[in-house]
Amino acid sequence: MPVAHAGGPGTDGGARGAYSPGTAPAVPAGGHDEAMAGLEGMEQPRGDGRAIASRWSPTVEDERAVRALEVHGDPTDGEVPLPSLPESAAVARRLVQIVILRRWGLTPKLTEDAVLLVSELVGNAVRHTGARAFGLRMRHRRGWIRVEVRDPSRALPCLMPVQEMDISGRGLFLVDKLADRWGVDLLSHGKTTWFEMRVDR
Q: If DSSP codes are grouped into helix, strand and coil, which group holds residue 181?
């Protein structure tokens, strides 16, 4: 699977980079701005295939999601730090759930996909960076939502070919299939891996 890299200066003096398969069309004039896109005019078309994974219900764990917001903070107000432990994936899922579904009032289907994808990004940060903590941040602007996971490692993730029966290595494959755009911004100390999804408001 081809991998393209787009680099440039980051907002904090670090390098900005993004991985994406193939060539994507440019963002239309008046559309998504650079601060949200991160790919500087490059975007990933949403894949037609849907992930084969255990599906999540937005009506489940609602009380736990409220509790997660109270305990850990609101990722729309600023970056929420979480310990680099496997159980933090559940916290991140609950935060994404309550923000997208309850606060932003978006669809259960979009919430379901975003919950799955943040779990994959958090899993990568916990398993592969050796960090003590990572950060979660969410943004919403007209027509788009963005979810970011920041960690202190500058090692770039790689989108690998995945076979139908593979049970590991599917994280970025799922992100590539379900997100409209995704990428990696290199920072002075670490990186931010993010995905974006189109929304109707």
A: strand
